[in-house]
């Protein structure tokens, strides 16, 4: 199976989220009437986001033949909590979804540390080869990051406007994760290991 081009995977990653943001911003002036029901802009954007994410995930799976556990967990929680928001016409369920996701990821990473299992390395070692100590440090830092993001999500959606929360979800969280990865560049360099290539083994 040919590996899809990076821009294709990036489009599948960002496309549903940017569509969610665009739908919300275009309709934030008032409720949206659909099938005899009035939806708030956030709930309507969630209604559009769920099938968009499901389709993007399906396309990714067909192109690569695999899905990361985080991608599957995210899809399931989006369908469950997003579906509850649409069904009950209550945006709060979708707003707490990032909190649940980040707490789940933090718990899994914390459990892997306690049981001395390198689950993070099993997922990312092909793209980021590091020694065992490096993976333990990164796992601990990522667990703390996810706990901080869960707390931040709760603060933003409970204390700030809905528009602020949408900006935070769409752009704030990815920026925080990007800055986190850049801040750990030294860790990646210090614990990187050489992976034998096909040429080296001949």
TrEMBL record:
Keywords: Cell inner membrane, Cell membrane, Membrane, Transmembrane, Transmembrane helix. It is found in: Cell inner membrane. Pfam families: IspA (PF04279). The keyword Transmembrane helix applies. The chain crosses the membrane at residues 7-27, 39-59, 71-88, 100-119, 140-160, 166-187. InterPro entries: YciB (IPR006008). Its main location: membrane. The keyword Transmembrane helix applies. It is a multi-pass membrane protein. One of its GO terms (cellular component) is plasma membrane. Plays a role in cell envelope biogenesis, maintenance of cell envelope integrity and membrane homeostasis. Belongs to the YciB family. This is Inner membrane-spanning protein YciB. The gene is yciB.
């Amino acid at each position: 199976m040919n590996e899809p081009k990076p821009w294709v995977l990036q489009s599948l990653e960002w496309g549903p989220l940017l569509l969610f943001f665009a739908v919300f911003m275009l309709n934030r002036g008032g409720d949206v009437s659909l099938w005899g029901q009035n939806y708030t802009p956030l709930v309507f954007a969630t209604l559009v986001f769920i099938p968009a994410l499901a389709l993007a995930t399906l396309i990714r799976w067909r192109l690569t033949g695999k899905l990361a556990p985080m991608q599957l967990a995210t899809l399931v929680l989006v369908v469950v909590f997003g579906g509850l928001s649409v069904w009950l016409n209550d945006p709060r369920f979708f707003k707490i979804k990032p909190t649940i996701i980040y707490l789940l990821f933090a718990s899994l990473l914390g459990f892997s540390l306690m049981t001395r299992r390198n689950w993070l390395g099993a997922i990312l070692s092909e793209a980021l080869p590091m020694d065992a100590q490096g993976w333990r440090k990164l796992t601990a830092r990522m667990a703390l990051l996810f706990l901080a993001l869960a707390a931040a999500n709760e603060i933003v959606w409970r204390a700030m406007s809905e528009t602020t929360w949408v900006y935070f979800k769409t752009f704030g969280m990815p920026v925080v994760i990007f800055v986190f990865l850049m801040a750990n560049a030294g860790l990646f360099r210090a614990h990187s290991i050489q992976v034998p290539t096909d040429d080296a083994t001949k």
